[in-house]
TrEMBL record, chain A:
<dbReference type="Pfam" id="PF03155">
    <property type="entry name" value="Alg6_Alg8"/>
</dbReference>
<protein>
    <recommendedName>
        <fullName>Alpha-1,3-glucosyltransferase</fullName>
        <ecNumber>2.4.1.-</ecNumber>
    </recommendedName>
</protein>
<keyword id="KW-0256">Endoplasmic reticulum</keyword>
<dbReference type="GO" id="GO:0005789">
    <property type="term" value="C:endoplasmic reticulum membrane"/>
</dbReference>
<feature type="transmembrane region" description="Helical">
    <location>
        <begin position="308"/>
        <end position="327"/>
    </location>
</feature>
<dbReference type="GO" id="GO:0006487">
    <property type="term" value="P:protein N-linked glycosylation"/>
</dbReference>
<comment type="similarity">
    <text>Belongs to the ALG6/ALG8 glucosyltransferase family.</text>
</comment>
<keyword id="KW-0328">Glycosyltransferase</keyword>
<feature type="transmembrane region" description="Helical">
    <location>
        <begin position="261"/>
        <end position="281"/>
    </location>
</feature>
UniProtKB/TrEMBL annotation, chain B:
<feature type="transmembrane region" description="Helical">
    <location>
        <begin position="103"/>
        <end position="126"/>
    </location>
</feature>
<keyword id="KW-0256">Endoplasmic reticulum</keyword>
<keyword id="KW-0812">Transmembrane</keyword>
<keyword id="KW-0328">Glycosyltransferase</keyword>
<feature type="transmembrane region" description="Helical">
    <location>
        <begin position="306"/>
        <end position="325"/>
    </location>
</feature>
<feature type="transmembrane region" description="Helical">
    <location>
        <begin position="346"/>
        <end position="363"/>
    </location>
</feature>
<comment type="pathway">
    <text>Protein modification; protein glycosylation.</text>
</comment>
<feature type="transmembrane region" description="Helical">
    <location>
        <begin position="279"/>
        <end position="300"/>
    </location>
</feature>
<feature type="transmembrane region" description="Helical">
    <location>
        <begin position="398"/>
        <end position="419"/>
    </location>
</feature>
Amino acid sequence: MQFVAADDMAEREDEQDGEKEPSNMFNLKIVVLLFSVSLKMLFFPAYRSTDFEVHRNWLAITSSLPLEQWYTDETSVWTLDYPPMFAYFEFGLGFIAKWVDDEMLILDNIPYASLETIVFQRLTVILFGDLAIFAAVQAHHASAYDLALLLLHPALLIVDNIHFQYNGFAIGALLLALAWLPDRRLAPLGAAFFAIALNLKQTLLFAVPAVTLVVLISAPILQAVVSFSGVFLGIWLPFIKQTDVLIKRLFPFGRGLLHSYWAPNVWALIASLDIFASALIGGEPSPSTRGLIGFAEPFVIMPNPSPLGSLCMTILAMLPALFYLALNKGDRRTKLLIAVSHSFLSAFVFGWHVHEKALLLAILPLCFVAGHHDRWCSVFRVLCMSGTLSMFPLLYEPAELLPKYMLFLGFAAFLATTMNRNWTLIESVYYTGMIPIEIYSTFVHTKVLPVGYEFVPQALISCYCAVGIVFAYCRSTSILLSSISASKSQSDDGGQGQPKELKRD
Amino acid sequence: MMDWVLPLICSLILRSGVGLYPYSGERDVPTYGDFEAQRHWMEVTRGKPISEWYTYDVDYWGIDYPPLSAFHAFVTSFLIEAVDPAAVALFESRGYEEEGSRAAMRASVILWDMMVLIPAVFWFLSKRSISDSKKLRTFYYLACAPALLLVDHGHFQYNGVSLGLFVAALSSVISGRDVLGSIFFTLSMNFKHMTLYFLPALACYCLGRSRTRGLRYLAHLTLTILGTTFLIWAFFDVKVVLSRIFPVNRGLFEDKVANVWCSINPAIKLRNIFGKSTLLKLSGACTLVAILPSCFMVWKYPRPEVLVRALSICSLACYLLAYQVHEKQILIPQVAIGMLSEEEPLLAAIFSIFACTSMFPLLKREGQAISYLALLIIHAVFVYTTTIPKQKGRSPGFAIALSGTLIFIALLHLVEVLGPTVPTLPDLYTVMWTTASCAAFCTILLVLYLRLFQAVPRS
C-alpha cells in the first residue's frame, strides 16, 4: 500500500540542505538537551542512595548554620566533605529550597525525603548538570553528537540521576575551563573556571598537572595565574582560619587501598590474584573479601603498596599524557582533553581508595574526542562499556534492573551504529562476555552459593571491568607514545613525518 | 535492520522509565487498582480450573475481559511465579506488592509488547513503501505514543497486546490477506472487547469487497471469525462471560471521561432525565448516526487508505458517543490515527497530546504527573524535529497549530495550579480537562470527516 509517495524526493533534499545550516545544529543541540532533561525526569521515582540524604543534609547545614560551623557540624553522620564552592552551591540552592519545602532545611530531620524534596533535588541535578555540560559543548564548538554522548551517557545517568550525585555539574565546569584554557584570549577566564571546578569536587585535582602544563605553554601565564589564585583565594577566604579542618575533611587519609566495592582497577586484579594465591597456599583468607574499608595492607601474598607508592605510580602513569601535551603540535584543545582524560584514567587505575564513580572523569572529556578521532574510538568504547557495567552494582533493587539494562543497551546500540570503526574481534568477545558475567552476578549467584561468598558477584564484575579498563589505559598510553615519537621524528626530519590526528569528516 | 535497533531500544527505555512511577492503586489498601486486578487474574487462572475463571469470587476484581485476556493472564502467571511464587498464590496473594513481583509484572508488560505489538508494528511498516524517516514516525506513533506508555506501563494494563493484534490484522488486510486479518481481528476483540469500535468500519470494508469478490469470500470470512470465536469461547459459559464483560447496569459513563455525554453533563443532566435503557438507545442511535457516513464511504470505496480513515473516524466517534466508555479507551482511536500519521501529521501530533490530557486527572491522581510531563516534552521534541523541517516551503500552519496546542495545554495547567479550589465543585478541574479534550476530539473528528470526503474522490 502506498498512502504517500509524491514528495519523498523533495523532502530528502530538504534534509540535506538543513544539515549545512549552523542554526540547525544549534536547534539539534536544543533537541538533545530537551530530550535528555525529559528522559532524566522519568527517573525521579527510581532508587536513591544515601547520597541523596547526604546532599539534603548539606542543604540543611549550609542554610541553617553560620559559615564557621559548616565544616564542623556533626549532627548527621553525613558531614560536609566537598570543597567550599560546592558548599556555596548548596547554600544558594537553599534559597529556592525554602520555597519548595522548608522542612528539608531542618538539620534534625534525618533522613527526610518528601515528594517535593525529591523533585527539587533531582531537578537541580538535571538542570545544573545538563546546563553546565551544554555550556561546555557550546564553548568547545562541539557537535550535537558530542552533546548526546555526554548528556545521555548511561554511566552519568546511573550515577547522577538515579544513584544521586552532582558529577555532571562539576565535570561540566571542568570541561568549560578546558575549552577556554588553551585559548590565549580566554585563558584567564578558563583559569577562573578551573579554580571553581576544583572547588566543586576535589577529585578533579588530578587534572592539575596537565592544566598547569597547557598554561605554561600557551597562555599568558601571569594573567592566568592571577585569575586562578584570585578566584581560589576568594573561595577559601571565608574559611581561612579553618584551613586545617577543611583539609582534614576533604582528604580523609587513613582509608584503605580498596573501597568496599572494589573499583575496577589494577588493585582489583591484584586483589583477586591474591585471594586465589592465598587459597592455593591454604593461608589465611584475605581481609579484602570481607568488604572492609580500613585496610591499608589488604594483600596477604602480593606486595602491598603504600599511599605514597600508589601516588608515585599514578604520576608515572600520567607522564605520557604530559609529554604528549608538551611536545606534539596540533589542536591544543583536543590534546588537553585527551591529556586530562588520560590523567584521570591513570589516577583511576593506580590510585589509592578509588571509587568506581571516578571513571566518569576519564570518560566524559573523551566524548569530545571519540566522535572525530578514530584512534580514540576503541579506548572510549571500552571505557564506556566497562565503566557502565561497573556501575551496575550501585543499583541493586529489582525495579531499576530493566532501566539500567535498557540504558546500557541503548548506548551500546548508539555507539555501534554511529561509531562503527576498528571494531576488533577481541573487543566483541569482551562485550559479549559482559552478558554472562552480569547474569551470573545478578540472578544466578544467590541461588548457587548462598552464604559466605557474598563478595563474589561484585568482585567478578569489578575484575572483568578492570581487564577492560586496564586495557584501555594501555591502549591510551600506546597511542600517546606513538604520537610523541611521531612528532619527534617529524621535528627531526623537518616535517616529513605523517600527520597523526586523522580527522574524520 | 540495524537502523531499527536504536529506535526499538529507545522505546524500551521509555517503557522501563515510565514503569518506575506508581501504578494504579499502588499501596492503596484495600481497594487497589488495575495492577491488583491483573495480578489477581493471574492468581485466579493459575489456581482455579477453567470453569471457575469467570465465577470465582467476582466481587473481588473478577475477570471482566473476554476469554483471551484470561488465557493471557494464565500464561503470564508462569513468569510471575518463576520470580516470586507468593505473588500468584491463590487467595493468599491478595494485595501482594513486593519489589521483585512488581518488577516482574512491569517486565511482563514490556515482554508482551515485544512479542505482539512491536512485531506487528514492524510488519505494518514493511507493508508501507515509504522512506525510513517516515517509517520512524509511524513507528513512534504506533509503538511509543505517550498515552499508550502511560496507560500500559504507568497505570498498568496490557492494551499493547490487543492493539498489536489489531495492527497485525490491518497489516494482513493491507496485503490483501483478509482471512488472516479476520483471525487477528477476532483475537484482538477477544482480548479486549473495546476493539469492537473498529468492527463497523471493518465489516463495511469486507461487505464492500464482497461486491467484487463474491459471496464465497464473505462466507470464508464469516466461517473464520465464527470458528476462531468458537475455539476461544468453547471452554466457557457464554452467558456468564457476556454479563461480566458488558456491564450495562453500570450506566452511561462512570468516571470522568472526555466524551460528549460527560462533557454536556454539567449543563444537561441526562442521567437524571432518562432511565438507563433509554440512554443506552440514545447513545446507540447517536453513535450510529456519527459512524454511518464513514461506513458508507468505506463500503463504497473499499480500499486500504479509505479503510484506515474510516477506522479512525469510527473508533473516535464510538469513544465520543458510545455507552459506558472508559478514559483509557482513547487508545483505540489513537492507534488508528497513528496509522494515518503520514497523511495527517498535524492531526496525529495533536491527537496524541489530547489523548494524554484527557487522562490527566487520572494520571495525576495516580502520581504520574511527572512522567506525563516528560513524555509530552519528548513528544513535542520528536514532532518538531521529525515533522516540521519537512514542512519547509509550505505554510507555517503546522508549527503554529502545534505550538498553539502546547501553549493552550500549558495555560490549562497553569489555571489548575494557580486557580482557586471551589469546595462546591470538587471536580472542577477534572471537568476542565475532559471538556477541553472532548472539544479537541470533536474538532479532530470533523476534520477527519472533511478529509475523508476530500481524499476519496481524488484517489
